[in-house]
Design a protein that fits this description.
single chain; alpha+beta; 11 helices; Patched domain-containing protein 3-like; Patched_domain-protein
Length: 339
């Protein structure tokens, strides 16, 4: 059994023939029916064909940024490109531009309108807006004459809310760090305001660690402790009545000065800083002696060679309400006398 060779004619690609077959149909559909307007349409179509046939299409090269269309590609209408015009916007850009914008002047617009109206009113009636605030301020300011003048301000009672967390925390500290101003005063254990007076004595010489200079400072200390104030009933309130005490005695204004007052023959050349061991009791001098010049080291301390200034502190009792009132009077008298 043998197979006979047969000749087969090459068939055209269906994709290439499909557009050619469809074009006549589409053209047939597009042609309008005969009528009075058909001749005008045909004439305009003929003129447009002559116009496009007369134009010479530019070459599509790589230099121009366009490529020639491949054979068999669908025909696209020519687009005229001007040198000044930009490329047509893409569909995504058109969608973005068509989106509604969010208006954020919901607060600015009414405020602007309100202030515009206010400005118009002020410009139309200026004297009203000038005189009314002045009269209102003068009228309300007359209430200041009813404020008490002789009552001392209490920051805790007037500016701290009742039952505030700050007061509760301070009571917690006071219960665990007790202080007794009449017998065992300690400034480090105080959690409230303390009335005290301070004097700084500065020497004109190289050092005040001299008996003659300390005697002058001691005289100032005696004058301060002799001060007194007059109470409401005409009674005298002395310093030793309202001073903060430690073991029945007023707290010394300066520990080094107090040590020298107790022993006038104290050797001031062997004083150590910042802690001085006086008769077996350590004394901390860093807060009361200034302008120091130190020498050789002696253990944890150094020898105090020179001191330029000394500070005297006078603490008053504030634990009881009566003592706080009396110490306040003496405090005022102290600064009145000092000035």
């Amino acid at each position: 059994m043998s197979l006979r060779p047969c000749k087969v004619a090459p068939e055209a690609w269906p994709e290439a023939e499909a557009p050619a077959e469809r074009e006549p149909r589409s053209e047939a559909r597009r042609e309008p029916t005969s009528g009075p307007g058909s001749e005008l349409l045909r004439a305009s179509k003929h003129e447009s064909e002559q116009f496009f046939s007369g134009r010479q299409e530019p070459e599509m090269t790589w230099a121009s940024g366009q490529l020639p269309e491949p054979a068999g590609a669908p025909h696209s209408h020519p687009v005229s490109v001007r040198g000044d015009s930009s490329l047509p916007a893409s569909p995504s850009e058109n969608q973005v531009s068509e989106r509604p914008r969010c208006h954020t002047d919901c607060l600015e617009a009414p405020l602007s309108c309100l202030f515009r109206r206010l400005g118009c009113e002020v410009g139309a009636h200026p004297w009203i807006f000038l005189l009314v605030p002045m009269v209102l301020t003068a009228t309300l300011g007359t209430g200041l004459i009813y404020l008490p003048k002789d009552v001392e301000e209490n920051l805790e009672e007037q500016y701290t809310p009742i039952g505030s967390p700050a007061k509760a925390k301070r009571r917690f500290v006071q219960e665990r760090f007790t202080a007794n101003d009449s017998y065992r005063f300690s400034i480090s254990r105080k959690s409230t305001e303390v009335n005290f007076a301070c004097i700084r004595a500065v020497s004109n010489t190289t050092s005040l660690l001299e008996p003659a200079i300390l005697s002058e400072v001691s005289k100032v200390d005696d004058v301060i402790q002799d001060l007194y104030a007059m109470g409401e009933n005409g009674t005298q309130i002395h310093y030793n009545q309202v001073c903060a005490k430690h073991q029945g005695l007023c707290v010394s204004s300066n520990p080094l000065l107090y040590a020298w007052q107790m022993n006038r023959h104290l050797d001031l050349r062997n004083v150590t800083f910042p802690i001085y061991n006086h008769t077996g009791q350590p004394i901390y001098l860093a807060g009361t002696i200034g302008g120091t010049f130190l020498g050789e080291r002696m253990g944890m301390n150094q020898l105090l060679l020179e001191a330029k200034a000394v500070r005297l502190l006078y603490y008053l009792k504030t634990e009881d309400e009566e003592d706080n009132e009396h110490s306040g009077l003496l405090y005022i008298n102290f600064y009145t006398t000092g000035t």
